[in-house]
Amino acid sequence: MANSYQVVVCGGIVPDPLQTLEPVAGPAGPALKNEMMLPAVLDPWAGHALYEAAALARKFPGSKVYLVSLAPKAKLQQVMMTIAQRVPLELVALDGPGGGFTDSAETAAALAGAIQGIAGLDRSKLLLFGGWESASRGAGSTMQMVAERLGIVDQFQGVDELQIGEDGSLRILERVEGGQHQVSVCDAPPALLGWATGNLGEPANNAQVGMQNMRTIMPSLQKAKPTQLKSGIAFASVALPKLQRETRIVKDASVDEIAKEIADWAAAE
Amino acid sequence: METILFLAHTEADGGLAKATLEALEAARALGGVLIAGLVGASVEAAANSIAGCGASKILGVAGEAFGESRYSTDAAAAEAIAQAANATVIVAAHTSRWARALPGVAQRLGAAVDTHVAALSADLKATRWYYRQRIEGVIERAARPRVILLDSGCAPAYAGAPGAAAVELVNVEITPALQRTRVIGKQAPKAEQQTIRPDAAILFVAGAGWTKKQKDGQTHVADAGKLILDFIGSANSSLGSSKSLVDLSGEGQAVLPFLSHLNQVGQTGSTPRHPKGLATCCHGEEPHVVGWRFIKERRAVNLDANCGWARGKADVLYVADAFAVIAKVNELLKAKS
Amino acid sequence: MEERPSMEVDIVCVGFGPAMGGFLTTLTPALAEFPEAPQVICYERADGVGFGVSGVVTRARGIRQSFPDLDVSQIPMAATVKQEKVLYLLDPVGASRRSKPVKALDAALRTAGHSDRFAVELPYTPEFLHKTNGLILSIGQFNQWVSEQLMMTGMVQVWPGMPVAEPLIEDDAVTGVRLADQGGMPGMDIRAKLTVVGDGPVGPVGRKIDEVLGTPPGFERNEWAVGSKMVIELPDGVDLEPGFVLHTMGYPEPEIFGFFYVHPDRLASAGIFVPSWFDNPVRTSYRYLQHFIQHPYMEQFVKGGRLRSWGAKSLMESGRRGEPFLCGHGYARIGEGSGSTNVLTGSGVDEAWTTGIQLAEGVIELLREKAPFTRDNLDRAYVTRRRSSWIETEGRAAEHARNGFQKGFIRGLVGMGLAGVTKGNIVVHAEVKPTHERVGTIEDYFSDRIPREEIAKIREQAKADGTPLHDLLMDRSGWPPIEYDGQLLVTHQDALLMGGKVQASGGFEDHVRFLRQELCEDCVTQICVEVCSGEAIAPNKDGGNVPVFDKEKCVHCGACMWNCAHAVDASGRTNIEFAAGGGGLHSAEN
Asked: How many domains does chain B fold into?
């Protein structure tokens, strides 16, 4: 197989999932309390997309992985310190708002612009990857709009598997209703794949990969284009849901007692 | 006054899904002029099923190619209907098919798009979740057209009597560019794999504790697997898991063979809807519990009385050995049936 | 396991704390002058460069030297010190264990009517305690800020989430480091011309070097403390100026010193130090911290506030006495693990940062000379700089300043005062004993308050529940139970889940190991369980007496290591091995 690919992964950053989140009213609409102080991680589904991209690039020598990311530069730099140890990549950084309360259409416009600016991009090798949703906005709409802007009409969402056929066709498994996968075959790139979890674990840290990546990542961060997003969204309210339940803790009951209670509860209509 | 386009695709049997009928009911509640738009291999049956919905007209794009869930053809069909309807607001169900296609269609129409809308008010305020069900926002937009994708459970399903409907067909040319992707079919999970069953009354969530060393210093993964599958069978339950359990395979530990990332509930997993949920051997930490947002009654079995479930996340926490408890529960459930 | 990979760099650094911040900040700008810039790489154990550290009030001499035009507002949570007070806290609940002299002091102060809210403000703050013009910092936020400045230069790489298992030692030279194995993959060997060790006093690399290459005569690391601290959102109506600092002593126990300082944006840090010479075998810092913030004087500031995050760390209070060999072939030591902490002024960050500057200046000198990183060259270029600086003179003056505390609180205070005023020329002499030689049994310690039979029952109950003893014993000996409000006063386990929570990172082995199981089987004191800052070490309720360790709860404070009741060899090494491990607190402010 002589194919090689240019895999462009779009991935934002989100607060470390262990942080306590609280909305506040900011000058430009809602924001997270202490947003700039919260530690950040790569958006988890975009992370799966990135790991899949890296695995594909390993399999097809000559392939290249780009990570296009829109986030405040300082936060992006922090996140790169973990990501760049795992996957060989070239970063295309945009310095702008990375929170969830922005409009996906605006984010898509910025990302598409950045992708169009990548020198030497070849549509016949282009695979556009991303998470099928973000863990911030959770809309699952950005990638489709990026692809539309790039003229890509072979699009897949909730992808768990990509296999490249002998003829270079793309066999793709997408999550659909009822716990099933839809199987589709696309003739060739370009295509958009919005990834769900895929089948790969998180790659272990690799000092050598990190070393290599940093030669390009830091210059890319240094010249990250300042990006502003307009928003057509007006927020009538933003609030934490009422979470707390009154938990009854059953501590000293026998196994039989507990089992009976659970069985009765489970069987009740 | 708004012109509301209710956009729907047919199912394999030519009918409309429950979530689609819910979106129709939500669209009807908005007032304004209602137009229905249907996409499918054939749309007559679906049109007839909603003949009484009050739509001023029913537009359709029909043909073999539109019977399949494929971005290129779905987007072309939806775009053509939207253009024909000249709607200001487009309402559709958040099915996997529309979730994939309509954001791109919005891009083509120069429309704004709001997805995963959990509730929609008559004045078009949309309620949706941010940060994986951790923050709830209510949003408005002045922009038109505006595409709104509604999550299931947002409204009662439309239940009007069927009738005979006239469908105005809209022609969409199928160019080779729209056919670069072929849909092969559906693939069910492997026989030994258990997945989330959306229709089940109860969700059973297995946590990493099932594969950890027990009192005797040994792991009992085979026993754990049997207990879990027995429960799934006897309680007719859906099966979910915590991220840590499906991740364990990456650490070379013994794992439950019937679990995959498809079972994962939480931050990077799913947010299933079930009336009841039972968590076992799972810590109940925030990134996992955000996936429980739509589980109404929650109970947990855990050895640690200090686990996350105890902190207002479950209705009942049983501090006990899940191996013993679930074995007994299975016995009782079998006896009941 | 697969074959172990290896990689070569010029300088490998272990641990990204203030010392490494000072080192890299000084080194980096100079690297550009070399035609082939040396490759510099730094590994940090925690999952983020700002995780699992602390907060501090510091004179910041070294930091200001590095950033002369420092704009404090650029660093989240940083403020300039505006007002300092030292307070002696009386015991408002009657449970504090106070010696006769302390009781006499309390009575005298009460009679004189000096106390307001059970506290007496010292009429003046001794000069040596002043932090005038200093900085209040969240080290987490400061570290992030420093790493940002560093990484943006593109000249150095700082990698968090990468624990270093041990140094590579060949003959008497350090030739690099070995990264920890992860997920069945062998950790990489990073070979380097220079290894900079800044992994703190409980870091495995520094300790291994001491073990293999030895320590100087007089070297002693018997004095420690657990520092435990909360970041609190101040309640409405409490308007304290950022830069307000309190130092306290006397409560909850005379041995426990406290602090409180105010950050911008209505945040404050409140914390305590639980020292190794506090002889209570159930020395829980979390419970004592809760009593501290409920003292009537502290309560006026924090009651109604909200706990935002919490954390703990070990402090090596032997200071200059715990100084190892500062360099050798191929390596140099900086920061707290190099014995730089000043135990008289209670200052460590400023000193650590400055040792980093000094090493960097030395390294630049050697790079310019194209001289190899031998012991002699490093001694000349680094150690000489350090010896002729304030780090050495002030460290020497402080060296024995706290020894008096070995004989009690009052003598300790007198000793500190004398050492402070005479710049270390007069001190109270006392042998400094390690925990395993000092601390007696629970039964003896509580003999005046709880009958032995009752302690036996309490032991049984705790064992059955798998919980530590401290709460039961403190409740029984007069400490009021903590009334949880879910806001400021929360259970220890809840605190682990707030403001970033604790998590182990995947694939690493348990980093706390009980070496000789038979010693644990026979151990009745198990200070490790009582002191554990995250309740990660718990009694074994399923049989046997060897405690169980849950890495998911470990905050990597390292207190278990120096609180073990048993030594396993003459070097004082205890029965708990505290190895390299990932994870810990995911809080970047505490």
From this structure: 2
Domains of chain C: 6-72+138-218+319-398 (3.50.50.60), 76-134+222-316 (3.30.9.90), 403-432 (no CATH), 438-585 (3.30.70.20)
| Backbone phi and psi for residue A60, each to the nearest 5 degrees, phi listed first | -120, 90
Contacts of A256 in chain B (CB under 8 A): 328
Domain span holding position B157 = 3-179
Q: Is residue B145 part of a domain?
A: yes
What residue segments make up the domains of chain A, in order of their start?
Answer: 6-226
CA C90 to chain centre: 26
Per-residue pLDDT reduced to its tens digit, C125-176: 777 778 888 999 999 999 999 998 998 888 899 999 999 999 999 999 999 9
For domain A6-226, the CATH superfamily is HUPs (3.40.50.620)
Helix extents (H) in C98-233: 100-111, 139-153, 204-213
HSE value, Cβ hemisphere, 13 Å, CA-based, for A236 = 13
Helix (H, G, I), strand (E, B) or coil at C72: helix
Any domain includes B295: yes
Asked if residues C402 and C412 have their Cβ atoms less than 8 Å apart, the reply is: yes
* Rounded Cα–Cα distance for residues C30 and C396 (Å): 31
Strands C135-138 and C79-80: antiparallel
A223 strand-pairing partners: none
Closest CA to C178 of C191, C197, C161: C191
Look at A81 and C160 and tell me if their CB atoms are within 8 Å: yes
In what helix (H) or strand (E) does residue A58 lie, and over which residues does it extend?
helix A44-59
Q: Sort out which chain B residues have CB atoms less than 8 A from A104's CB and list them.
A: 103, 113
| Same domain for B271 and B169 | no
Q: Coil, strand, or helix at residue B236?
A: coil
Statement to judge: residues B250 and B307 lie in one domain? yes
- Rounded CA separation C133/C58 (Å): 9
Asked if residue A130 lies in contact with residue A11, where contact means CB atoms within 8 angstroms, the answer is yes
> What residues does A143 pair with on adjacent strands?
none
* Cβ separation C160–A205 shorter than 8 A: no
Token pair, residue C343, equals 């135990």
- B144, B179, B214 — which closes off a domain? B179
Does B123 share its domain with B243? no
Q: Indicate if the alpha-carbon torsion angle C67, C73, C78, C80 is positive or negative.
A: positive
Q: Are A38 and C185 an interchain contact pair (Cβ–Cβ within 8 Å)?
A: no
- Within a domain: residue B196? no
The amino acid at residue C157 is Q
Residues B139 and B284 both lie in one domain? no
Render pLDDT for C483-537 as a digit per residue (tens, 0 to 9): 988 889 988 888 887 777 788 887 889 999 999 999 999 999 999 999 999 999 9
Q: Letter for the amino acid at C9?
A: V
CA atoms of A183 and A199, how far apart (whole Å) = 16
| Mutation site for B-interface testing, chosen from C487, C497, C548 by largest number of B Cβ within 10 Å | C497
Lowest pLDDT segment from B121-135, B181-195, C108-122, C163-177 = B181-195
Q: What distance in Å separates residue B306's CA from the closest CA in chain C?
A: 6
Q: Do B162 and B282 belong to one domain?
A: no
Evaluate if residue A170 carries a pLDDT over 60.
Answer: yes
- Both structure tokens of C510: 């348990």
Cα separation values, A133 from A101, A136, B270, C524, Å? 14, 9, 11, 54
φ, ψ of residue C354 to 5 degrees: the values are: -65, -40
Cβ-defined contact of A38 to C588 (cutoff 8 Å): yes
Q: Nearest-CA neighbor of A151 among B71, C230, C363? A: B71
> Looking at the structure, do residues B170 and B82 belong to the same domain, yes or no?
yes
Per-residue DSSP letter, C379: I
Report the SS3 class of residue B62: strand
Cβ-contact C58, C134 below 8 angstroms: yes
- The enclosing domain of B328 has a CATH number of 3.40.50.1220
